[in-house]
Structure formats: structure tokens, C-alpha cells
Amino acid sequence: xxxxxxxxxxxxxxxxxxxxxxxxxxxxxxxxxxxxxxxxxxxxxxxxxxxxxxxxxxxxxxxxxxxxxxxxxxxxxxxxxxxxxxxxxxxxxxxxxxxxxxxxxxxxxxxxxxxxxxxxxxxxxxxxxxxxxxxxxxxxxxxxxxxxxxxxxxxxxxxxxxxxxxxxxxxxxxxxxxxxxxxxxxxxxxxxxxxxxxxxxxxxxxxxxxxxxxxxxxxxxxxxxxxxxxxxxxxxxxxxxxxxxxxxxxxxxxxxxxxxxxxxxxxxxxxxxxxxxxxxxxxxxxxxxxxxxxxxxxxxxxxxxxxxxxxxxxxxxxxxxxxxxxxxxxxxxxxxxxxxxxxxxxxxxxxxxxxxxxxxxxxxxxxxxxxxxxxxxxxxxxxxxxxxxxxxxxxxxxxxxxxxxxxxxxxxxxxxxxxxxxxxxxxxxxxxxxxxxxxxxxxxxxxxxxxxxxxxxxxxxxxxxxxxxxxxxxxxxxxxxxxx
Length: 484
Ligand code: FRU
Fold this sequence. Notes:
Blueprint lengths: L2 H13 L2 H6 L14 E12 L2 E9 L9 E7 L6 E7 L2 E2 L6 E12 L12 E12 L2 E12 L7 E2 L14 E8 L4 E8 L4 E7 L6 E6 L10 E9 L7 E11 L2 E14 L4 E2 L6 E2 L7 E5 L8 E5 L14 E2 L6 E8 L2 E8 L7 E4 L10 E9 L3 E7 L2 E8 L2 E5 L15 E5 L6 E9 L2 E6 L5 E5 L8 E5 L3 E8 L3
Parallel strand pairs: 1-21
Antiparallel strand pairs: 1-2, 2-3, 3-4, 5-6, 6-7, 7-8, 8-9, 10-11, 11-12, 12-13, 14-15, 15-16, 16-17, 16-18, 19-20, 20-22, 22-23, 24-34, 25-30, 25-34, 26-27, 26-33, 27-28, 28-29, 30-31, 31-32
């Protein structure tokens, strides 16, 4: 190439806005948040403060596989458009022992009454995270530590008397802390993973913690427990009635080859969580929804988001300079059905701002970031990312909502990735209406009543795949989606 032509080419490439550059990166979601580069897992410290939602997350600043765990950080005013900020809390070395401490999953709270007295005035952010002490990549011990920020999460200081909670165990992690106004105290839920136990602690100052009670083993114990959360939800159509939900991450509903999330519905009296539930209940039936927790300090609604990935293949997914993304923030509800109390999930209402244009036909779709509303009579379905023999199928068969990604494109990177997900709809329906949110390499399916969700990643190989409707399925709404 002649030097002048090369210069023109360089000028052209650099004149593209960052957004345009992102949009041509293979598999990069356009409306789901993913950090610009490197490895990401669990959401951490979800909290709302002064008009900003904070999303901290498990992050490796040095590579595209798990390691050097630190807290990455992004903020949003609307839960849709996120701005990535510098790493918030980093892994650190102990100069005397040479051991290093990774910053594992945890929580952030607004210390509205300056209970720690670490900040000069009320309202600073406190993070309580698992300090994972390790030597030569061998975990030695996990305890809980604290950091504080007086500039809305931009910079953090670690508390100089860390850790604040240590029970002398190698595995003891993922604190979720929230304010319990009835007794004016802070509550922490965290897990002893290999004992399938959630422990509940209380504190007045976030520094000294007192064990109140334990829950478990219960429900699904096929894999270790991680990332618990405890929150109260109003029961739909039953004014004044509420229940408490204990959610946690562990085995997948399809068995322990994969990870997934389960929940318990019960009561919490300020000290103890109890549940009469007999069988395990699961949050999402896809393979890619894990470590979800809810935001602190959000009034009048409960919003959860999860990590879109699965430990079984997370380190191998064929994305480029980044690995890992987060789900659509979901508003949670609780419904009393004939089968008992069930969680409901809907994309937060702000998600509707991603709808760019309403289209009349799926043939008009020009991008792989879109939303569909589809009515599925029994025996019908829809192909997404359809090109030649490559396709991802969503359908309703024998009363089961399913997503089949066995022919979805790149599946070879890990032997268990090519899977079919399904959930039995109760009672068996003649038809089911679903909302499908497609974003380059992630699909989130919500039944419109919110009772069933399937979240899966796919890695199609064709550039202009289409949508194909099968056996009486009706596409009722189609939108192109994009962020502002
Ligand atoms: C869950 C998890 C947590 C831990 C973190 C480490 O995915 O294993 O239990 O704190 O990831 O990155």
C-alpha cells in the first residue's frame, strides 16, 4: 500500500467513534454491559447512590482468564447505559509475608448514619468483601474485610484493622450486607460453601459482627454454595403480604455439570430465616445466569442482575480481548401460584429505552441486537441466528419451554457447551407468550408472566443470520435495540 493511502486508512479508522469500533467487535453485546477488556465474573456491591447505580464486579485487570481478582467498576443513571470507570479495589501484596490478597465477591452499602465512623460525614460507601489470602495461587484463608469511599466509589481505602470477620476457614465467602430498619442494624448473609450453609450475622457499626443463625443444608446441595442474598418481596395481588427470599448460587437445575442459581421462599424475623419449602426452586433455566444479587438502597423495587456465563466453560468462551458480561437488570416479584410461591422476573422498565424502531417483519432485521415478542402455541418455535444448518431454536414442546444451542455456531471450545435447556411450564399450556432479547452472543428469554427465564450465550459464525418462524409461532412485536 502507498504511504498516502495508508495514512488515509489510518485517519479513517481513528475517526470512527469508540462506539462504532465496539460495534464491529465479534460477539460484543451492544445493550448488555461488558468491560472493554479482560476477564469478568460476579456482579459485586450493587448499590444506588445519589442518582447513580453502581456495578462493581469481579475483574482481572491483567488478562482474559480468571485471576488477580479485583473489583471493576461501572456506573449508570438508568440501568441501561453504563460507563466503565477505573478499577475500584485491587488485589494487593503483603510486603512482609509475600502473600497476596484477592478481592472476592461482596457488597456495598451507603453508610447513611456513619455507623463505622470511618467517614467524616454520613453517606459514604462501604464495601464488605471477601479477602482471599493466597500464596502461589493456593488459597490459604477467606475472611471478610472492609473498604470505604468518600467520593462515590471512585477511590477506596482499605480499613486498617481488616479483616472484620474471620472464622478460621479456607472457604468462607461472598458477604451480602443490608440495613434492617425494624431493628436498626446491619445484617450480613454469607456462605460456608462446602457445608451448604448460609450464616447470618448482625452489626451496629459494620465492623464487629455477631453470628445470629444458620440456614442449610437444604434444597439443592449438588455443588458448593456461593453468593447468597436475602431480601423481602411483596406478594403479587395480596396487599400487605410479603415473604423473604434467600437466593444463592450453586448447582444447575439440569445437574451439577453446570452451575446455576436457586432460591428459598420463607420468613425472616430479624434473626433467623426459615423456609417450609420442600423442593429446590431455580432462578433461571439457561446455562448462563450465575452469582446474581440485588441492588442495595433502591426504593420500591428489587433489581437483580447476574453474570452471564457458567464456570464449566467460562474461561474458554471464544470472545476476544474481553470475557464475561452481565444480564439485563431484572425487577423481581413474587407470585402465589397453584404450585406455591414463585419468583417472577422482568427486564427493568428502563430497558424499553433500548427499543429503537418497531419493525413489521423479521426480514427487516439488520442487526443481531433486537427484541421480539412471540406467541408460541404448543409444538411451535423460532430459529434465531439462522444461516444454513446453523441455528438456535426456542420453542414450546410437550409443555416445556426450551432453548437448543446444539447447532448455534461455535460449540467446540468445551465439550459440554452444546446443550438444550428446558423448563416445564405448569400447568401445561396450550400457548405461551415470551419476550426474547437477543444481543450478539446472548439471548435472554422471559415468559411474559415473568415466571420462567432462560439465559444462554451463543457464538454464531455467520455474519448475516436471520430469524425463522416454525409451526404456527406468531411474532407479535419486533424492535431493533441499541443504547443511547
Ligand atoms: C462465584 C465465586 C465467588 C467468589 C468469586 C471469585 O462465581 O466463586 O464465590 O467470591 O467467584 O472470583
